[in-house]
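Reopening: structure tokens for the calcium ion complex, inputs below.
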Amino acid sequence: MLAMQFLSLKCNRTSQGAGADEIYMVVNGHRASAPEAPDFWSMDDGDSVGLNFFNSGFPPGVPETRFTITLMEEDTFEDDDLGTVSFTVNDFDWFDDFWNKIRELKFTGNDADYSLFYKFSDVL
Ligand SMILES: [Ca+2]
Ligand SMILES: [Ca+2]
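Re-run output (same inputs, fresh job):
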């Protein structure tokens, strides 16, 4: 079945406020973050983290299914929303190196600048 394969997340600029960001993602309603506690990636300007997971919320044979990805920054009282990107596979050109192309999503809310790299993958 078709899935998003998340490759890496790069912090080009942290969000408003001093110091590093505590980043997690919400992918189709499910929180995705660092594999061990603490439950986020601590990221500063120029940092990059390798990701190695697939979105698993995508039913087989349903390219209309929507991917919705939100990048969040954890704070003590209220987490900051750094932006949401939403698309379906049908928004892309199947004949333009569909499976191999490394794609980038940008998240620029709260004065931040993050790049999330992924590709589409056919997983069993
Ligand atoms: Ca924070
Ligand atoms: Ca914050």
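The chain has a mean pLDDT of 89. The two ends are 6 Å apart (CA to CA). Marking as resolved unless the reporter disagrees.
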